[in-house]
Give the backbone structure.
Amino acid sequence: MRATVFSTPLLTPLLRWIALLILKLIGWKAIGEEIKTQKFVLIGAPHTSNWDFPIMLLVVLKLRLPVFWMGKHTLFSFPFGGLMKWLGGIPFNRSKSHNVVNEIVIEFKRHETLIVLIPPEGTRHKVDAWKTGFYHIAKNAEVPILLGYIDAAKKEAGLADFFHPSGDLENDMQAIRTFYAEKKGIRPENS
């Protein structure tokens, strides 16, 4: 994959130091350890605010994860498209019918290491049901799902446990949602 903010020589170590400093200044804690396994789907929830992105960016920098994330294609327009890609972004167009799940599965098969961050809500706004693309990607690529979270009530963001899809979508999604039930987003009214 291409070079990103997480893999740019000389600059990435400096940005990690800055990330630690900013987290300390804003009073947020990054929870989790550096992970040796470098092939999984990372989900991040609850996704309720534009501030989720910079906070998770600081956390993954601190934890040394070379993350790619999926975002709507409009984020990648001029003049910020290059920056968004350097920040690890992968644009996709939600309004067109194409097989994003299969495309990402192929990328997992092509690379020895790959971490793709996906917000399961698919939006910052309140939703009744999560999108299941992240689950199908993990299941079809035979990789685990790492549960990443933001909890504004505790001012912490980080990584919890790996979840291994069983193939029982309904029960697995319920188990995943149970983990997030107590997590409070930055804008809880959107949870």
In short: Residues 11-190 form one domain. Helices lie at 11-26, 52-62, 81-86, 100-110, 133-141, 169-180. Residues 11-26 form the longest helix (16 residues). The CA atoms of residues 127 and 165 lie 22 Å apart.
